[in-house]
Amino acid sequence: MENNRPSAGKWSERLFLVLFFTVIGSLVMIVFSPLRPVLERGADYLGRIGLIALLMIAVGLVRKSARYDKYLPVLVGLLILAVVVSLDWIFGRYLMDSLGVDGSTPASFALLKLNEGFIVVCLVILFTRMAGGSLGLIFIQKGNLKQGLSIGLIAFAICVAGSIPMAFLMFKPGDLSFTRILS
């Protein structure tokens, strides 16, 4: 009878890879966040470029390795995440500076979010296709329209029904009512 338990070397390798992927993903989302970057502007740019270069080198090395080839989608995903978050931050800053948008009013905040959404969606689609992935990998595919609309409408109804109680719990509004929300 064959023993299918992984050896200690495999466990240490897996643990290292889990920690590596977690650290890189956290670095992208926390340190290089488009909302509140941790580093000063010059160091932030250099850090972003360095991280993207490191990930590109890792992707190149993993593509050549049959042993680690199964981790390529995770590395490519982290590379796409790092590039998209960085470009979102740069273009968001450009929009804020060039148009004088600061996000303090609902209209300017909506403009910033529309800009971010457009940049992120377009870049994720572009880089996924450039990496040789299909749109199905990022769940953009033809599906069952009736089922999708049913699930979407049910989820929307639950969100609407829960928004008033959540508003009371989180923001303590004084005279919030359904008729006031509709107006």
In a few lines, what is going on in this structure?
Helices cover 73% and strands 0% of the residues.
Written account of the structure:
- The protein has 183 residues and is mainly α.
- 73% of the residues lie in helices and 0% in strands.
- It folds into two domains: 8-141, no CATH class; 142-183.
- The protein is built from six helices and no strands.
- The N and C termini lie far apart (72 Å).
List the helices and strands and how they pair.
Layout: H1 8-31, H2 41-64, H3 72-99, H4 106-130, H5 145-171, H6 178-182
Amount of beta strand: under 5%
Q: Given the C-alpha coordinates, what overall shape results?
A: globular
Output the helix-strand order: HHHHHH
Report the radius of gyration as a whole number of Å: 22 Å
State the secondary-structure class.
mainly alpha
Question: How far is the N terminus from the C terminus?
Answer: 72 Å
Q: How many separate domains make up the residues?
A: 2
Primary descriptors:
6 helices; mainly alpha; 183 residues; globular
